[in-house]
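Appendix B. One record, verbatim.
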Amino acid sequence: MLFRDDLKAWDEKMNLILTVDGAKEGYQGNIGLVTKYIPDLPIKDVNTAKAVVVGPPAMMRFSVMGLLEKGFKEENIWVSQERKMCCGLGKCGHCRIGEKYVCIDGPVFNYTESKGLID
């Protein structure tokens, strides 16, 4: 697993959900879709809670839906569009979504803005 030390440090400071699609018997982590764990997040105040969603587009879409259902405010959800980046300089245009260049204007966008970006 990449960034193992970073993930441990983040897990000590926030509610971090990591899952794998499948695992060998005896695996101690979460197995299955990350969205199945969202309803059980121990959030003290959903009005001030913040979420950052990173992953494949389908996972991000359903994760945001789950966060909204849990009561998260749209402006407190951030999503990453880094999968669109290519040159990283805004020259090639492969990362362009509407008028935004993911490599220059992002790659992390507030959900209130990101939901209007047609990909």
